[in-house]
Amino acid sequence: MTALPSYDSAAKVLSADNPSALALYNSVVLPAEQVASEAAATDNDATFRAMFARVVGYLLLYPPSDLARAVVQGEIERCADKPDQNDAVYDLGEMYVMDFILPFFSRSYDRTPRPPQPDLQDSFQHIKEDAYQGRAPRPRDSLEALALALVRDDHLCMVTRMMDMDSWEYHLTNKPMTEWASLTEPCHIFPATLGDTRPAGNDGTTQEDYVAARLWPILERFGYGDIHDALRGDKVHRLENVLMVNYIVHVAFRSMFMWLERTEDQPADCYHVAVSNPRWYRSLRLPHEIQFVAHAGLPLPDPTYLHIHAACCRIASLSGANDYLFWILDEGLCLDEAGKADPTLKYLCYRLVHAA
What we know:
15 helices; HNH nuclease domain-containing protein; elongated; 3-stranded antiparallel beta sheet; mainly alpha; 2 domains; two-stranded parallel ribbon
């Protein structure tokens, strides 16, 4: 968790053409963070309030789009009109944690099962032939996305460039084995659970339905309204939404400890591998820069999808929201030693209230 930048530092980020944004940052967001930070010495909940204020501040400083900044700025203006503007800022930050950051966050995920060797070889060969003849089907599930991504990415993890073990073991490729190898799997930028959703509160609505129903309106306000239709239903498995990575990279990406940022003045599809802690570069064998290369004319991951994910990760890392989500989603947390409800219970109540 990193404290918000000072007024002078924020002035270097916010455009001089928008002095009101800097004024709101200084008069509304920074005071809310300061009050919560000072109270944190004797009030554990104040630590979370400080984090919520930082989410608002960092979202204003590093939004995914100019329109997103304008939206957040308007919301901060409304906070300033509330009787207790500090509480309004905390509520706003909590909303963005739950409805904007949480959908991209996961402590675990279902790994894509692989069929037996003969089935894998047979299905892959047909898909590979179709792909190189320009007849590649749109993947309808994670398994089909896996097969097409193996073709597109030449059987290598897109980040570490490690060989896919099954591809080599089952002779799906003639490439020589790399120094390091691992099982690769499709990693959805927008999680696959966001594809088939219903409005929150309908009969049969799942937790994933709720999360998606809260995310899409935010993205629409931020100027990304077309993404919902692009990823609706099984279209969430389209290759533009899929990275082919090894298991460890998949975990880091889903946990929001690693993300990909476009590099300036570099060729298309070049990205900086950003991490929440520099030690991940060494321990996960991550490069600092990567360039995607497509094979068989198959589409690469959409830069806009990666940009939105990166914005969420950056804000979550700077504010401490990812650590907060790790904590409240720990199944062992329900009550503290004194029997007082901790943020896990508050989180569940929040979901019930806003799903109604």
